[in-house]
Amino acid sequence: MTATDTHTGDRPSLLLAPAPPSGPLPRLGWALADGWTVARRDLLHWARGPWELGFGLLFPVLMVLMFVYLLGGSMSVPGGGDYTEYLMPGMFAMVMVFGLGETVTAVSTDANRGITDRFRSMPMASSAVVVGRCLADMIRSTLTLIVLIGFGLVVGWQWHGPFDRALLGFGLLLLFRFALVWIGIYVGLVVRGQGGMAVIQTLEFPFGFLSNAFVATATMPVWLGTVADWNPLSSTVAAARELFGGPGVIGEGWIAQNALLMAVVWPLLLVAVFAPLSVRRYRGLGG
Prior knowledge:
It contains 11 helices and 2 strands, in the order ββααααααααααα. With 287 residues, the chain is mostly helical.
């Protein structure tokens, strides 16, 4: 709680910050309101520096162009099918992975500049900073996914079947991103400076490419294909391909044959682990 001395004539008075609300629902509303305030701060930063957001949107478009027009001619889908339709669900998921570095950088930068400590000194919900970061990143990820979906339609990708199944596929992609946001927040709070970004950059590409995002795991050596099948990214990509009605190869293992289930279970497990760790780490800063 903070206090500020003011004077009315010769008599000092004390202005106290309002006490946190009591009860679970009022406290939840308080935390969400404070979280949205923090998220708005990040959105205003993007509005003042649109080139950064524009580059973030351009990068996945360039990736699609490279794979579709430079490498696509030499790619084949086991069992047949158009490679562009096989590729795009994997590219949607990879965009979710690449956003992890942006989360780590933003969280680490705020911590290093003392902005996080300033937030901690204010009468706000202790979870507001991490919740606000999560909200802002999900808004950005949704915008990026919409842009890439539009570009995918331009280069020949489309979903087949009811729109509600396609919408569920997009929802699973954003659920996966939601889990990665909490991982990024935790890493950004634990590993300060360039260290956190170096860790993520080192892991992003192996994590992304050691999956079924670009090629079927059946084409890999058995041991490597098994590792790729157990990559949470592979479950999300396989589930999205199934919901979009595009070409895909279902593996022989249990994890591959239950991709739709695991596309929900993996992100929920990650959130259950890293969301509490992130909040606890934020509360312990400076302690």
